[in-house]
Amino acid sequence: MGKKKTNRDEQKNNENGAPKENRQETTNKVKEIVITALVGVLMLVVVVFGLWKLSGEDDKPSNTLAFTVGTEEVYMDEVNLVILQNIQSTGMTVESLDRVSSENKVDAATVYKEEMLEVIMDYKVAYLVAKERGMELTAEELEDVKLDVADYLSKVDARLLNQWGIEKSMIQEVYEQRYLAHKLETTITDGVEVGEYQYCTVYFMLFPKVEMTADGSYATEEDGETPIMLSDSEIEQAKADADAALAELKAGTDPDEVAKTYGVESYSGQESNISTSFDEVFTKYTTTLKAEECSPVIELESCYAIVKMITENNEEMAEQIVEYYEADKMQEALDEQRALWYEQVGVGEEPEYAGKAWSSVNLYNYLQ
């Protein structure tokens, strides 16, 4: 028979809590409650995730990372915006995407896609450099951003933006980055100067000392390179014709009529260009002659030539040429500096792609 518990035993049980069997039972119940709670939370997470999947939130362009440029993440809604804007600005069509380069056999769709990627990378890199330099947009520039965003939104179908998951807040952010990138770029392009140019129109009248083909080219020996020279008497006649033609030109006779008189119209005629861009032997005349003035007869190895100035400086064309040269020089300076910016922020020629979002982009889908 077991011994009866003494008062001391009962006191010990009271001091230490419930008996061992009761303590174990309590512990098990606590574990069951904890496990049940964890399972419930897990199930709730699964349900929420499932509902999120069903809602398509994870497939939204704004949640789909396409690639990163340095520390900048580029999501598909931004990619969609750039593509739509390029289509709008270039007038891109299915036919234009179908074209294939005869030189490298690359289709236009691939080329356009790579150009758009380059556009995104360039302004992201410039934006990163501008931030590193502590550059910010002024209140006036931020107001210009708002106006540009509003202008864009007024010119594009809202249903199209909704289709591609493009929201105003994202457009605003992208435009601010572009403005800041451009602000950095102007620190390079503002210092570019190209000087002044004269754009002239001159009439070149040529009297060949070599045999000419029907299309106005030099006839050559069997080697295909050496010109076939005229006889001495024929060359003397060419010089005499040039002297006579010069006298007629100085008298004011129309150059085309003079050229026909001496049978040199097929390789004579007007040319227009920057005055310093003609062959070096003619530059001293194209840069100094005034309208209606003529050069003397110029003897060259292949011909005798006369230069008659028609228009010494077309200011409108000169302005256009200067703008072209300036834009070209600016682009060269910017390309050179941009390469350094890429190194500065540690960005390579290709971004860091995330999954297949970018590779899956099909420009044809945006034209539907």
| Content-based structural category | alpha+beta
Q: Helical amount among residues, as a percent range?
A: 40-55%
**Count of DSSP strands:** 7
Give the number of helices.
Answer: 12
Report the sheet-strand fraction.
5-15%
Name the helix and strand elements from N-terminus to C-terminus, one letter apiece: HHEEHHHHHHEHHEHEEHE
What is the radius of gyration? 40 Å
Shape: elongated
CATH architecture of the largest domain: Orthogonal Bundle
What is the CATH class name of the largest domain?
Mainly Alpha
Main β sheet profile: 4 strands, antiparallel
State the separation between the terminal residues, measured CA to CA: 95 Å
Major β-sheet strand ordering: 4-3-6-5
Contiguous runs where pLDDT drops below 50 for at least 5 residues:
1-18, 45-56
CATH topology of the largest domain: Triger factor/SurA peptide-binding fold
Can you put this structure into words, describing what you see?
- The structure is a single chain.
- Mean pLDDT is 87; it is low at 1-18 and 45-56.
- The strands form two sheets. A four-stranded antiparallel beta sheet has the order 4-3-6-5.
- The longest helix has 36 residues, at 20-55.
- It contains twelve helices and seven strands.
- α3 crosses α5 and α5 crosses α12.
- A hairpin with a 3-residue loop joins β5 (298-299) and β6 (303-311).
- It folds into three domains: 22-59; 62-192 and 327-347 and 357-367, Orthogonal Bundle (Triger factor/SurA peptide-binding fold), CATH 1.10.4030; 199-312, Roll (Chitinase A, domain 3).
- It is of the alpha+beta class and 368 residues long.
